[in-house]
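Structural prep section.
Before we set up the soaks we want a predicted structure of the protein with pyridoxine-5'-phosphate in place, mainly to decide which crystallisation condition to try first. Input record follows.
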Amino acid sequence: MTKLSVNINKIASLRNARGGNLPNVSLAAQRCEQFGADGITVHPRPDERHITYHDVEILKPLVRTEFNVEGYPSERFMDLVLAIKPHQVTLVPDPPGVLTSNAGWDTVGQKGLLQEVIGALKEVGIRTSIFVDTNLLHVEGALACNTDRVELYTESYAKGYANDREKAVIPFVTAGKLAGELGLGLNAGHDLNLNNLSFFVEQVPDLLEVSIGHALISDALYLGLENTIQLYKRQL
Ligand code: PXP
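Run finished without errors. Recording the tokens verbatim:
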């Protein structure tokens, strides 16, 4: 079954709005696991506007399931992940000021950088994933970077879903199949939600993991965290 990794950045955004410790990010991570999440994802950004670097250090020993840390491989990010050694690091090419990840890697143009950071991560036993769009050259390029997995950037699927879901999913099926043929593990994420998730998982073969934040945490406001996680799990 495809694993559900819950991205808890939005819990930290809410906490940071008041400067105290409410809601408590560690407790939220533990509750997500208790309610059925297969993993916890965090994405510390340079301005620390949601998850802070310190949060990531605190979470590492608390997370009992898979801990996935996403981010751009800056010196500070690499120092953090090499020190705490999460199960998986997902490399994302986002520049410092963006609201959310808005592109996959150009794995051909950035091969040198990616090979170097992936080498360093694998040396300490961290599984690696590269965030990519469905451009087949970028999927193929990921293999040359020696990554274990790719994470398909699903925004275009989510955008196209209402209009024509069959059409929207085709590039993901093709890219996912290629990843499989190349021996790369397959993750996916961005703008997945209760509505569009099950069709994606049905159509894209051998999907190992989805990471979902914005929609899931928003749903939890109306439906409760436990119920929401169970509903997402049911879609998988
Ligand atoms: N995957 C990556 C690489 C991301 O940067 C994000 C957002 O932080 C997600 C998945 C989750 O996206 P969403 O919050 O839209 O579910």
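Observations: The beta strands are 3-7, 39-42, 66-71, 88-91, 127-132, 149-153, 185-189, 207-212.
Flagged for discussion at group meeting.
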